Amino acid sequence: MSDITSSSLDESFIQKTIKTVEEHIENPQFSVEELSSIIGMSRSNLYNKLMSITGSSPSEFIRIIRLKKSLKLLEKTQMTVAEVAYKVGFNTPKIFTHYFKEEYKMTPTEYRKQKEQSPQS
């Protein structure tokens, strides 16, 4: 029974954390300190909890949320890659492209072309 309780608590924690990151997604200065303050945890407790649930550090977690949001923008808008980068809180398109390629093994432009070529599902 405690597994069910803890997993639902973890789920609500993750949902709250994702929602908080999404509310501040356009702010490139949004930091782990701000996230931990809003969530109401110390930075080290936030780190430990996110690592245990997701395997990602808080900074990686924020970056993953930003990158997932960028996928939707690349698919559903005509924004340039640079506009998408700024919209999801990256300081420069170059940094955005670097992390995007690291995460998805292709550039944002390649991703968009691939999505345009594949039939809509």
From TrEMBL:
Residues 15-114 form the HTH araC/xylS-type domain. GO terms for molecular function: DNA-binding transcription factor activity; sequence-specific DNA binding. Keywords: DNA-binding, Transcription, Transcription regulation. Gene3D superfamilies: Homeodomain-like. SUPFAM superfamilies: Homeodomain-like. PANTHER family: ARAC-FAMILY TRANSCRIPTIONAL REGULATOR, HTH-TYPE TRANSCRIPTIONAL REGULATOR EXSA. This is AraC family transcriptional regulator. It comes from Phocaeicola plebeius.
